Protein: DUF1772 domain-containing protein
Organism: Rosistilla carotiformis
Amino acid sequence: MTILLFLKLITILAIAGCGLMSGLFFVFSVSVMRALALLPAAEGIRAMQSINRTILNGVFLSTFFGTEVACLAVTVISLWQRQPGWAWGTAGAACYLVGGFLITAACNVPLNNQLDPLSATAPESEAQWQRYLHRWTRWNHLRTLASTTAVILLSISLLSR
């Protein structure tokens, strides 16, 4: 297999992964977080704690980290080969790596870790829940936009080859 064929295949995998992650983030932004915000704080906290524990499964983790690996490969090969579409591919991969992966690791996961031990019935829980909803959702909107942009840019790079 030539390096350019490998680049096309890994770009397709990156597009698929970014698309799956973008869709997941999008659903949280437009429905899940809105639904949780409508619940009493104790119910919302318990539901999100359950979601955060349940999502850490093999399918999600393989997709999340596999997309990171695919985007890293697209970046390295694109910068090395400098074939038509290389800048689009590099930009698309960077969108996911920074906007999807790093924001998750640096912003959403720490917020989830702060929420995890929170007692849903403690007096201060409602205020903490409101702060969590606002911050987590704001970061989620950004990673949704970044992952969607990654799909678009990676697709342009593939069409440019």
